[in-house]
Amino acid sequence: MWTYDKFLEYPVKIKTPNPEMAKIIITQYGGPDGELGASLRYLSQRFSMITPQAIATCNDIGTEELAHLEMVGAMVRQLMKNATLEEIQKGGMGGYYADHGRGIYPVSASGVPFDASYIQSKGDPIVDLTENLAAEQKARATYEYLINMADDPDVIEPLKFLREREVVHYQRFGEALRIVQDYLKEPHLFIMH
Amino acid sequence: MKNEMNKMELLKQISAAKFMMEDLSLFLNTHPTDRETIVEYNYYVKEWRDLKENYEMNFGMLSDDSLSCYPWQWISEPWPWENEANFKFEKEES
Known about the structure:
The structure holds 2 protein chains of 2 kinds. Chain A is an all-alpha fold. In chain A, 63% of the residues lie in helices and 0% in strands. Chain A has a single domain, classed as Ferritin (Up-down Bundle), CATH 1.20.1260.10. The termini of chain A are far apart. Chain B is mainly alpha-helical. Chain B has helices at 2-30, 35-59. In chain B, helix 1 (2-30) runs antiparallel to helix 2 (35-59).
């Protein structure tokens, strides 16, 4: 089970509404490399993970991703909350507004609803940890694309924090994979030393 | 206003301590025999507990296992996703 702390992992304090930015940032809420997929991926994989180190890594990174999901939701909410209808329509959020108003719904940047096929849980620890390495890199790249398209420091700062966490998670999953490979005495054929 | 500043300053310190716990615990999951990092982790756990106790005595419940005075404090706004709930990071003076 979980406990809840009533504050964000990293602050989100956006002054200026920007539906155009909300439209692309929401992909990290419900898109193919987003935080909803990340949390579900790791929190599902942990049930069949092996070795104490790798189990804890899936459990705890999966939990941190829920805090990131909350941050991304906060960003989208603050970018949309005080936006005028004109700004929403000009920013390309008219279709989203028709379906969800200023609420938060898990979709990708192109409006595709969240789909469980974004994640994998294979019941094989080597497969799952290898999937996670790619997943963290895809999320890192997505945050970099979002940062490239952002000009408001209030938006860029939390995106930079989230990007940095993907790098750390990649490192931790790499260590977990090595530990599992050593435990299974798997050859390290595809891992650089 | 001064109260609000104290609240945000405390919240910033609490967030920082909690973040250190998060990052160090992920590291320790794959380095469980790193004695120095365990000492460091324990240091931030104590700091987190002290800061949180201080915050909650003045500003109400911060976690879902906190004590509440009357009336029930948990429902107090703002929630974390609101702009007003968040502190602003000032750039370090260089």
